[in-house]
# Entry
Amino acid sequence: MSLTLIAAMDKNGLIGKDNQLPWHLPADLKFFKQQTLGKKILMGRKTCESLPFPLPKRENIVLSRNTAFIKEGFTVINALDDSLLKEEIMVIGGSTIYKLLMPQANAMILTRIDHEFEGDTYFPEIDWQQWLNVRTTYLPISEENKDYNIAFEFYQRIN
Ligand SMILES: NC(=O)c1ccc[n+]([C@@H]2O[C@H](COP(=O)([O-])OP(=O)(O)OC[C@H]3O[C@@H](n4cnc5c(N)ncnc54)[C@H](OP(=O)(O)O)[C@@H]3O)[C@@H](O)[C@H]2O)c1
# Structure
């Protein structure tokens, strides 16, 4: 099993505003695409509703308690079953789903944006004793990343 949480957050752990991302950062969208392409991505119903269409070349799985919820191109599940959690899954948010699956996740990929934004939804609290930073790559402000310094942090759970 491989369960990876992947999220982008500001300096305060903010991840969302009005059921959207608080920012438009092409450099992070490109990174997110690289990390998730060809994989199963799991999201909460609210994150699904924030997307105009399923993310291409990925199996888009949505968790909702609403048995009537459907959206074209998304596979809706009403509960997590053990067989799903045995596969390689990228958990793409939002806050509720990160919190639900953090205890079972074995990796995290966190984009840190060096700025404070306004918003209403935060990444859940992290118990840092459980996580080892195995790699960080930095993307400073540049031609390809015009607005903010960004760091891409990779963590593995410490067993
Ligand atoms: N910065 C980032 O990396 C990032 C990534 C993703 C999302 N976001 C942002 O995060 C915000 C949304 O996060 P959110 O926490 O409000 O919502 P969410 O996690 O996307 O979705 C919550 C929904 O998931 C379903 N759900 C949760 N737990 C469940 C369970 N145990 N079983 C079945 N269904 C369950 C419920 O849907 P029903 O109500 O239908 O039952 C619940 O309302 C948005 O602003 C979005 O843009 C940011």
User: Anything to note?
Assistant: The domain at 2-157 is CATH 3.40.430.10 (Dihydrofolate Reductase, subunit A). The pocket of NAP is lined by residues 7-8, 15-16, 19-21, 43-47, 50, 63-66, 69, 78-79, 92-97, 100, 121 (CB under 6 Å).
